[in-house]
What we know:
The chain is an alpha+beta fold. Helix content is 36%, strand content 22%.
Amino acid sequence: xxxFSARRAAAIMIALFAALSGMIGRVAYLQxxxxxRTINSAERQQxxxxxxxxxxxxxxxxxxxxxxxTIQTQTLYVDPKFMQDSYSVEGKSLVTxxxxxxxxxxxxxxxxxxxxxxxxxxxxxxxxxxAENLDERAVDEILKxxxxxxxxxxxNQRYYPMGAIAAxxxxxxxxxxxxxQEKGLEGLELxxxxxxxxxxxxxxxxxxxxxxxxxxxxEDYFPPQHGQHLILTIDxxxxxxxxxxxxxxxxxxxxxxxxxxxxxxxxxxxxxLANWPSFNPQNLDDSTQEVRRxxxxxxxxxxxxxxxxxxxxPALREHITSVAEIFPVHGPHYRTSYGRKVTxxxxxxxxxxxxxxxxxxxxGMCMLGERMGNEKLNGAIRSFGFGHQTGIELPGEDPGRVNxxxxxxxxxxxxxxxxxxxxxxxxxxxxxxxAYANGGHLVTPxxxxxxxxxxxxxxxxxxxxxxxxxPQVLDPATAMEVRRVLCDVVVRGTATRARxxxxxxxxKTGTAHVSGGKEGYSDSKFTSSFMSGAPFExxxxxxxxxxxxxxxxxxxxxGTVAAPGAAKLIDRALAYLxxxxxxxxxxxxxxxxxxxxxxxxxxxxxxTVASVKE
Length: 614
C-alpha cells in the first residue's frame, strides 16, 4: 500500500502535469484561435495612435496685418486607471497619491478635492481631460512632478489680435461635435472653413510601461496638412475708421443700429464693412445671434430718397428728361391723377431736374416716374442689380426685393419713385452707387484677394475683373453728369453738413419712414442714410452709411444724422490714402444755372463750408 509520501508525490505530479497541460493548451489557443486577440491586446498595450491636429490658417488684411490667427497651447490629460494601478504596483500609499494630486492642482488652479473625485468617478476611463490652454512653463512644471498617467497634448486656439475690428466679416469659431477641433460658425470663418481648417494627421507611437513615447516608425507618421491663409481686400485701418465713425454717429443720435460699407468703385474691393453694435469674435458666447448678424448683406430695408439716382440716371440716358428741364412742383403737395397725395419737406414753385435731385423733391420724382411708366421704372432699377444677390463671398446674403412687374399697381409708380415698395441691402446700394463713380459699370463686390498655402506659397489669387469687362449700366457721360449733380447735394442741397474743406464729395441723402406692417408707416421711426463718394474728379472710395431709427427728438433727416459721419469717414480715409486735395468744382452749365434755386458761383470754391439757406 503506498505510503503517505508516495501519495503526496503522486498528487504533486498530477497537479504539475495538469498545470503544464493547461499552459500548453493556453499557448496552443493563443497561437490559433486567440492569436488575433492576443496581437491586438499587445498592440493596445505597446502602441498608441495619436491625432496630429492641423493648424487653422490665418486671415490677413490687404496690407498683411494679422486679423485672425492660431496659437498652440497644451491640454493636460490623465489616464485614471493607469495612475491608480501604477501607485499600487510601486507600493506607494494613497496618501502619496493625494500629495502628488495637490501639487498638480496648484499648478492648474483646480481644487484637489474636485480632481480626486473626478479620478475616482472615472476610474475605468483611459483618457480624462483636466486642464486646457496651458503655456509651456506650466507644462514643464507639471511634467517635473513625474506623476504616472499624466500627459500633455497640443491644442490650437483661435485668437483675434484686433479684438472687435471687422467682427461681422471674420465671424468666429467653435468646437466641433467631438469638442476638439475648431470649426467656423460665422462670417468668413464659416464660409471658408474647409480651406482654413486643413486636414489632421496621425502617428502610431511605441510606448514603454509608463506610457511614455519611445519611437515612431516612418511608415506610421502622417503629417497634418495645415490650413490655407486668406488675404482680404479689407484695409484694417479703414475698417477701424469706419467702425469709429459709425459707432459715434449711432451713439450720438441714440440709434437702434447702423451699417457702413466702403468700396473701391474701380475694382469692387470692399475696403471696410461694419455693423453697430458689434461683438468680440474671441468670445462669441457673450453676444447674441441678432448682434452677430451681418446686416450689411442680410437685412434689406426700404431706402427712401437714396434710391432716386437709380431712376434719374436711366431717365437721363434715355432722354426722358434733362438736367435743365423745369418741373412745376407748385408747393409742398401734389395730387396724382387718381388722387394720391405726395408731399415735399420744402415747398418749391418750380425746380430744374438738377435740383429735383439736389433738393430731393418727391413731387418732381413722382412726375418723372409717371412719365417713365412702371415698365421702364422696373427695368431701370433692375439694371443696377437690385433684386439679386451681388455675389460677394460671404454667407447669408439676401437678394432684396423688387416685385415682378405683374405685381406692380398704379400706386407703385409713385412709391418706387420715392424709394418705397422696394427692399435693398446696404451692400447693394453701395455697389449700385459705384456705377456713378466709375463711368457706369456695375462692379462685383469682393472681400477675398487670394490665399496662401501653409508654407507661404500662393494657393490662389482672385483677380479683380477689368471695368471694361463689367456690365455697363450707364454711358460714361450720363454717369459723370449725375455725379456732378450729386456734388450739389453737399454744396447747396440736403447734405450741406457733409461738406469737406479738402475734397469734393458727391452723394445723396435718404430719410425713409419705417414700415409698421398692417399699421402702415411710422411717423416716429426713420431710416436715415447717406451714400457718397469722393473725390468727384477721380473717385477713390464710395461710402454708404445707414442709421436705423435714430431718436427723432434729436434728429432724423439723413442729411443731419448720417451725412456728417459719412463725410468725416471720407475725410479720414482720403487723408490716410494720401489722395491729393480737390480743385474747385466746375460750375453748372449756364442753361442749367439759370434755373437753379438759390444759385451762387462762390459756393463752389473748395474749402467753402458755409451752409446754404434752403
